[in-house]
Amino acid sequence: AFRGLRTNLSFVLKPGEKVILATSCIPGEGKTFVATNLAMSFALLGKKVIVVGLDIRKPQLVNLFGLKADKRGIVNFLCGSKADFDLLEEQITPSGVNANMHVLPAGIIPPNPAELLSSSLLKEGIDYLCSKYDYVILDTPPVGLVADTLNIGRCANVTLFVARADYSPKANFELINGISADAKLPNCNIILNGMDLRKRKYGHYYG
């Protein structure tokens, strides 16, 4: 499935574009699952890829990858007064699952997440990562809860909205369609996660 997603993205991304934003409308739809497995799929192809934890209110990547909780993260870079790329490099850690895949976790939870994600340092940091990696995948907060992801959108080339079968409310799609129509996030696409294909044995999927 992720190889198929990787292939489809090759038709969506234009030459030189490499920043993929993964989000959802509510928690639990699988955006971090999609972001990390997509990164692994690129890494297995021999591409150098980094997953950036930008859900700085509720960071998950440290626990997901079993990394040391040593307070390293992009928040340390965003708190600076200027773009210190040596400091940014110090925040990056190997994923532990593939040599081509690195992780830039969120780090400490700041008191002013919205201000940090609105900072020009975020765009400068992502641009720097683009010079070092073949793909930069941004794991972001759900758009239905906070406006953080809309601030992050300026740094991305393509948006992956993750919806989950038998879980996501249909009303979510009004929000997604509105964001897409107003171009609040770039190049919006939808991924349906958690589809139980066994329910299709009679040829139709009800619900």
How would you describe what is shown here?
There is one protein chain. With 207 residues, this protein is α/β, with parallel strands linked by helices. The protein contains nine helices and seven strands, in the order H-E-H-E-H-H-H-E-E-H-H-E-H-E-H-E. It has helices at 2-12, 31-44, 61-65, 74-78, 85-91, 113-118, 120-132, 148-152, 172-181; strands at residues 19-23, 49-53, 93-94, 101-104, 135-139, 158-164, 188-193. Strands 3-4-2-5-1-6-7 form a seven-stranded mixed beta sheet, with helices on both faces. A hairpin with a 6-residue loop joins strand 3 (93-94) and strand 4. Helix 1 packs across helix 2 (31-44). The radius of gyration is 17 Å and the shape is globular.
List keywords for this structure.
37% helix, alpha/beta, 9 helices, seven-stranded mixed beta sheet, globular
Number of strands: 7
Radius of gyration: 17 Å
Low-confidence stretches: none
The major β-sheet equals: 7 strands, mixed
Helix content: 25-40%
| Strands in their spatial order, largest beta sheet | 3-4-2-5-1-6-7
What's the gist of this structure?
This protein is of the alpha/beta class.
